[in-house]
Amino acid sequence: MSSIIGSALAGMQASTRKVSVSASNIANSQTVGTPGGTGDQAAYKAINAVQVTGPNGGPETRITPRDPATSLTYSPDHPRASEQGYVESPNVNVAEELVNSKIAQNTYEANIRTLHAWDQMQQALLDIKT
């Protein structure tokens, strides 16, 4: 497989993982929990998609826990509030997640255009040889 195809496909896969992470964070942005709770009582722990260079030089995306993954919010009437009136909320900024998702979408589309350009070059090469 051509390194161009490999890089484009790796970029598309990395973009897909970034969109998946943003979607997960957005979908769970309101999943609060009892501070220090576990299981059903725990808040959603936000995650990050970090792009790194893979062993073959192409992009890869690693999923890492966000630091901090949660924050305390004062909500004394919430059923999961602690005795002090706090709930643990995911550290998710929906606007930031939407921007990250749009950037990943644009990157995905750029990699598709790379594949189309490679295909056109291959067709042109075959036309020259015949």
Show the helix and strand layout.
Layout: H1 3-27, E1 47-53, E2 59-65, E3 70-74, E4 86-90, H2 94-129
Antiparallel strand pairs: 1-2, 3-4
Helix pairs in contact: 1-2
Q: TL;DR of this structure?
A:
By secondary structure, this protein is an alpha+beta fold.
The secondary structure category is: alpha+beta
Strand order of the largest sheet: 1-2
How many DSSP E strands? 4
Number of helices: 2
Task: Return the average pLDDT rounded to an integer.
Answer: 92
Please compute the radius of gyration using only Cα atoms. 21 Å
Distance N to C terminus: 23 Å
**Portion of residues in helices?**
40-55%
Instruction: Name the helix and strand elements from N-terminus to C-terminus, one letter apiece.
Output: HEEEEH
Uncertain runs with pLDDT below 50, 5 residues or more? Answer: none
- Please, how many domains? 1
Spatial shape? elongated
Biggest sheet layout: 2 strands, antiparallel
Strand content: 15-25%
